[in-house]
Amino acid sequence: MAKARTSIEGLASTEKVLEIFRHNPECISVFARGGYTDDTTGNAMGFLAFLPLTADGHAALFDGRLDTGDPDLQFICRQHERPAAVYHWGVMNGPETAGGIAHVFERMTSAKYRGLPMYCRAANERALQFFLNIGFVQGASFKRHYLKDLMHLPMQAPPVASYDSYVPGAEDSAIGIKVVHDLSELTMVLAMRAAAYIGEQGIPYREDVDGNDLSATHLIGYVGDEPAGCVRVRWFAGFAKVERLAVLPRFRRTRLAFKLVQAAIDLGRAKGYTHFYGHAAADVAPLWERFGFVRRSGGGIRYLTDTTYFEGDLIVPAKPDALTPQSGPAVLIRPEGRWHEPSHLEGRIDT
Q1: For residue 146, which of 36, 93, 97, 141 is within the disulfide window of CB 3.0 to 4.6 Å?
Q2: Under 8 Å between Cβ of 76 and 60
Q3: Angle 156-158-163 (CA atoms, 0-180°, nearest 5)?
């Protein structure tokens, strides 16, 4: 730190740096001559420090609550936690430290850091050129905030699974879908179905609430942050049944119904299913047929009302990367529909 203060203005206090280091030792990497040794006294050539931000820390970076000169620990992840974003806090480098810098950035491709937004501020012209050379660009935005003095590293966004596309706080017209993971979300599903089926269509309660809701997977569709529709999938040994598609009236001019069905099929394919089956009333059968469902012959079936439903089947190719018993214990314990994201249990698995 003493060496860095001779060339870099505005550094955090040494006490703050030590506080951050004790909170999360991964935050600071020092480059020293002579290979790895416990005693680098006198050999220190440079360093790279970053702040692994929590979700609130990510927001605080943009709304002004995070003082990067004196960061509050509440905004910084512990070593075992996956951050929401990374802020490159400080760098002291030169030609002789290039290999060390490369090693630190290689760590950023690990599962813990891969795909995270990365930000920095250049303290001087030399730092500006360094960050520009490694791909950072000037200006950064997050939600409704834009900071021209903040730099960000453009990254190709990983493909978003259709069944895990809901982003809280998205713009009002954005359509997002997620799998139900708790009872409050299941309550939303039942409320929407009650409005669309029981209230609007006059379907008897015991036809809609049929005893299968606790043995099925439900998906919620959002328009902005408003729950707007849902669909249910039940899993059988050789096929999946897609059913209970409901969209609230004011959202029926959107593509939500289409996206809910697609998400249900995509979810099933991710789980290894290739055969999908369903019932559709005559007025919505064309929607299902757009996905390739083939209507079975016959006059259809009826439940407790006069509505006639037609059976249909969809056969799709197997997904090459579908889940199997060989997908690994870390993947198979993840929440339904979030197999691409490490869970909080990852670090506790011994294999």
Answers
A1: 141
A2: no
A3: 145
209 Cβ contact list (under 8 Å, min separation 6): 190
Rounded-to-integer distance, Cα 197 and Cα 203, Å: 5
Tokens matching residue 347: 């670090």
- What SS3 state is found at 282? coil
C-alpha–C-alpha distance, residues 232 and 261, integer Å: 9
Q: Which residue from 305, 286, 303, 306 is spatially nearest to 295, judged by alpha carbons?
A: 286
298, β-bridge pairs: none
Beta-bridge partners for 138: 151
Query: CA angle, corner 10, sides to 5 and 12, nearest 5?
Result: 80
| 61: phi then psi, degrees, rounded to nearest 5 | -60, -35
H helices present in the chain, as ranges: 2-5, 14-23, 55-63, 98-107, 125-133, 183-193, 205-208, 256-270, 285-290, 329-332
pTM: 0.57
Residue with tokens 């206090």: 13
* Three-class SS state of 55: helix
Pairing of strands 275-281, 240-247: parallel
The β-bridge partners of 240 are: 235, 276
Contacts of 253 by beta carbon, 8 Å cutoff, 6+ apart? none
pLDDT in tens, 193-234: 999 999 998 888 988 899 999 999 999 999 999 999 999 999
The residue assigned the tokens 């030609």 is 95
Q: In terms of residues, how long is the chain?
A: 351
Condensed to tens digits (0 to 9), the pLDDT of residues 113-143 reads 877 899 999 888 888 888 888 889 999 999 8
